[in-house]
Amino acid sequence: MHMADALLSPVVGGAMWAGTLGTIIYCAKKLKEKMDERMIPLMGVLGAFIFAGQMINFTIPGTGSSGHLGGGMLLAILLGPYAAFLVISSVLIIQALFFADGGLLGLGANIWNLGIYPCFIGYPLIYRMLVRGAKSDKKIMLASLISVVAGLQLGAFSVILETKLSGITELPFSAFVALMQPIHLAIGLVEGFITAGIVIYVRNIRPDIVEDLHGVKVLSSGGSMKKALITLAILAVITGGAFSWFASTYPDGLKWSIEKIYGKPEIPEKVNPVTENLSEIQKKTAILPDYSFPSQGGQEEEKPSWPAVDPGTSLSGLLGGLMVLGLVVIFGLGIKMIRKLGKRHVL
Amino acid sequence: MSHHIVELKDVRFCYPDGTEALKGVSFKIFHGESVGITGANGAGKTTLLLTLNGHLLPTAGEISIGDIPLTKKMRQEIRKKVGFVFQNPDDQLFMPTVYEDVAFGPINLGLTPEKVDERVRNALEMVGCIHLMPRPPHRLSEGQKRAVAIASVMAMNPDILVMDEPASNLDPKSRRQLINLLKSFRHSKIIASHDLDMILDVCERCLIIKDGKVVADGPSEEILSNEKLLEENNLELPLSRNHSRLYLRS
Amino acid sequence: MSFDLEYFNLGYLDTLSYKNTFVHRLDPRIKILVSFTFIFFVVSFPKYELSGLMPFFIYPVFLLTAGDIPLRAIAKKVLFISPFAIFVGIFNPLFDTDVLITIFGIPVSGGWISFISIIVKFILTVSTALLLIAVTSFPGICEALERLKLPGIFVVQLLFLYRYLFVLLEETLKILRAREAKSFGKKGKEVKTFIRIISVLLLRSVDRAERIYRAMLSRGFRGEIRVLKTHRLRLQDVFFAAFSVIIFYIFRNFNLVSFIGENLKSSFR
């Protein structure tokens, strides 16, 4: 699911961009050290391949609805994590520009959500771990399913976190989770199955493609298992912690929505530390006055002091808004006329 | 002075999966000659061409291009002398614009930006595509792509031009333009093709490859009139020789 | 959208991007930076903001008209992707029902206001993304990215992707047409067939990449590709950037809309 600009706050959007750009630079550095030069045309062509492949639809068995390939894990398997991350970023950049999928601010978040987890968690920690030694079709299928599902679950959860931290949408956290995670579980199963199918098929005809085409060693032998387990454990703690923190600050989903609709709850005792800090940073940089962060769940939103939204001035807001739109349209028509006149003189 | 510029001595090539594509090919090509190479599908034409540029190294035998023997080390040197035009222009035009594509070779030769610019413009003038300089390749017609692909190779000032099926997929006008262009080049030319009329038009000498061996080598006029020889190689008399068929139709 | 339509749309925007207007000639770095600044400002509005967003339409309108981009093309695309924004935004009126303002006696809840705000922000940001590519060729954007210090490997591979995108789309189109010709109605779209098709496409793509590599080698490739720099920063680029950022700042921080509205109101009295 793609993040959209309209659902992001500048801070969250900016933070995700910083993370994505940092990862791109890191991957490029890693590739420069170890890359075979034939990777350059390969990365581009496979990116085009994934792009085209995503436009082919198939019917998901059992539901009748049409599905599309994601391709993140497939790229990681074919190219290795560093190259795959760059390719995924490229595909998303083109989609953001030509199809406006998610917008330019959300692009940073999208690349992160769809790229980081398959490339740096799903592939090295799950897929490669499971497909060790002799590769059998069953192993590939199992590894593919688990790694893809894990990647998508993490990606979907990231979308929820980003949206919630931005505070634009009112959708309650638990409802969001209940919506996103199961859907992405189903998507993950289908995609995992398809990825495995492709790898198995291609392996028979051109085994060299699937076996370390990238030649970049992701894990050194030996202590890698331990490293992987430790990383997984840390991740589990973080996600578990984040989950429970959210669950506790936003009281039981249903109760929360009822309170919203029917009455004001008491002021909660716990202050949300993360958003408080972000608020502080934002106040200090002060380019954007009055930008408010979502305060404690259940509490009244900090109404912006500008423009004052009360019955008296709302009419002027409406009139003014329409007037401005009208001016903008006139401006546009003016430009069009200038161009037409200019054409006669210039050309 | 006509010393030979390309020499193959008993060249053999075996693919990794065991298929023996070239089974002892020998011939000499002289400075300024235009040689056509033809034969049935799968006879080994493309494999042969790929050895001329060092993409494939013979598993046995020797190749020398302009006094340089073909070895792994000398490959890059040989590529400076041999301009290879591949069958599919899309594979060859990989830069974002025509200008950059034609400039790719000269830049890799280490020329200064001014020299590069000169080479690019000359090459594009030669093929009549100077107006296409800023165009992205995916916005070119097939004929234009071919012409630009040739320019991209000519910009390196090669001694020899090697081309794989240059006229395929071209409409008659574009094909005619290509033929005229090729005739105007003074370079030594080696052209693999099924378009026998083109070979007749452009190349004074013709080789027929069958099952990885040279089975005919002589003046195109002669070879391409030999009906029996042609049919043995899944070929036919070129249309311009095919008077009998024309008469039969009327 | 069907494959055909998507492919056509891609090609259409791509063609538009090679036009030659004032906006097209602006330095791509400037266009990228100004567009990002624009989106940043738009998105920074608080959730109940509506009228303050209106002046911001001037930027996409400017790009559209000065760049000679047909309104229909952009509008259609924006409309096409809008269901997503609507789907997520629709929860706002459901959960936020405190009445915020009254217009001509009709109470309007905060939820609806924030919903419309989301939609307006959506239109502004999405149209800007589309217009950015419509007035800047993709190679131009790549050149700008490299100049903005993104790694060379990344930019080169972006360019290759773009170069071969249309080639691969053509190939895919052929395969899909073959699939259509051989299946009747639903048949043919099963997962198993899909896996076959994609695998074949993948193998062909790898072959193609190898041929391209050969072509690169035969012209002396030794591992580095240099991207041509055709753009130079001119006075008009700097002016455009400065001017845009200043008016965005003014629109964001000064209540022009209420000001105009108040004056209109009083002139009616």
| Overall structural domain count of chain A | 2
Largest interface (CB < 8 Å):
A-C, 113 and 129 residues
Mean of residue pLDDT of chain A?
74
Helix-strand pattern of chain C: HHHHHHEEHHHHHH
Topology record:
The complex is a heterotrimer of chains A (347), B (250) and C (269).
Chain A: H1 10-34, H2 39-54, E1 58-59, E2 66-67, H3 72-79, H4 81-98, H5 103-130, H6 137-166, H7 173-205, H8 207-210, H9 224-249, H10 253-262, H11 273-285, H12 311-346
Antiparallel strand pairs in A: 1-2
Helix pairs in contact in A: 1-4, 1-5, 2-4, 3-4, 3-5, 4-5, 5-6, 6-7
Chain B: E1 4-14, E2 20-30, E3 34-39, H1 45-52, E4 60-65, E5 68-69, H2 75-81, E6 82-85, H3 89-92, H4 98-108, H5 113-126, H6 142-154, E7 160-164, H7 172-184, E8 188-192, H8 196-202, E9 205-210, E10 213-219, H9 220-223, H10 227-232, H11 243-249
Parallel strand pairs in B: 3-8, 3-9, 6-7, 7-8
Antiparallel strand pairs in B: 1-2, 1-4, 4-5, 9-10
Helix pairs in contact in B: 4-5, 4-6, 5-6
Chain C: H1 3-16, H2 22-25, H3 28-43, H4 58-66, H5 71-89, H6 91-95, E1 99-103, E2 106-109, H7 110-134, H8 138-147, H9 152-182, H10 191-218, H11 235-253, H12 256-267
List key phrases describing it.
heterotrimer, A: 347 residues, mainly alpha, Arp2/3 complex 21 kDa subunit ARPC3, two-stranded antiparallel ribbon, globular, B: six-stranded mixed sheet, four-stranded antiparallel sheet
Describe the protein.
The complex is a heterotrimer of chains A (347), B (250) and C (269). Chain A is mainly α and 347 residues long. In chain A, 71% of the residues lie in helices and 1% in strands. Chain A contains twelve helices and two strands; from the N terminus they run ααββαααααααααα. In chain A, strands 1-2 form a two-stranded antiparallel sheet. Chain A is globular, with a radius of gyration of 24 Å. Helix content of chain B is 38%, strand content 25%. Chain B has helices spanning 45-52, 75-81, 89-92, 98-108, 113-126, 142-154, 172-184, 196-202, 220-223, 227-232, 243-249; strands at 4-14, 20-30, 34-39, 60-65, 68-69, 82-85, 160-164, 188-192, 205-210, 213-219. In chain B, helix 4 crosses helix 5 (113-126) and helix 5 (113-126) crosses helix 6 (142-154). By secondary structure, chain C is mainly alpha-helical. Chain C folds into two domains: 1-136 and 229-256, no CATH class; 151-225, no CATH class. Chain C has twelve helices and two strands, in the order ααααααββαααααα. In chain C, strands 1-2 form a two-stranded antiparallel sheet. In chain C, strand 1 and strand 2 form a beta hairpin. In chain C, helix 3 packs antiparallel against helix 7 (110-134), helix 4 runs parallel beside helix 7 and helix 8 runs antiparallel to helix 9 (152-182). The N and C termini of chain C lie far apart (52 Å). Chains A and C meet through helix 1, helix 2, strand 1, helix 4 and helix 5 of A and helix 1, helix 3, helix 4, helix 5 and helix 6 of C.
